[in-house]
């Protein structure tokens, strides 16, 4: 009887063990299938995230290009204002507060500079750069940049006997439409302006 009971226990344990093993194998297969599906989903997510990043970068780049194009179009739409004139020959015996005549045009975009009065009439308000070069011979010469007659810049070139010396001066100034800008001399005996050295006056809007 005891042997029969033991045999029954062994049979039950064996059946139970086989059943557990099958259950374990089944769970392993299910786990493997789930892992495969999860891996596939993660791959799809990675692909979607990569695609989304590329799309966002594309949109951002397009926005940058459009902004640059718009800014370029805006800059292109703004008319250029710039001038450069120089004296065609030497200037002698300039009196006090006499406007220096720069009679030869190299540039006059916007037509703001009048070569006969040697005065720049501001076409539109804004910040401008003005620069002038004076070459003196055998003397000293004070010059003034004036806006509506008010001094906004100064230069004081000088030279010893038998020599000439040039000096350039630059002023950045906010001016308004209709303002008159010119360079005046203040006691200059002789200014040199020829094929070797030139007296000149330039300006442009920023």
From TrEMBL:
Entry superkingdom: Eukaryota
Keywords per UniProt: Secreted, Signal
Signal peptide (from-to): 1-17
A Pfam family hit: C1q
GO cellular component, one term: extracellular region
Domain C1q: 76-206
PROSITE patterns: C1Q
Localisation per UniProt entry: Secreted
Protein name (database record): C1q domain-containing protein
Organism: Mytilus coruscus (Sea mussel)
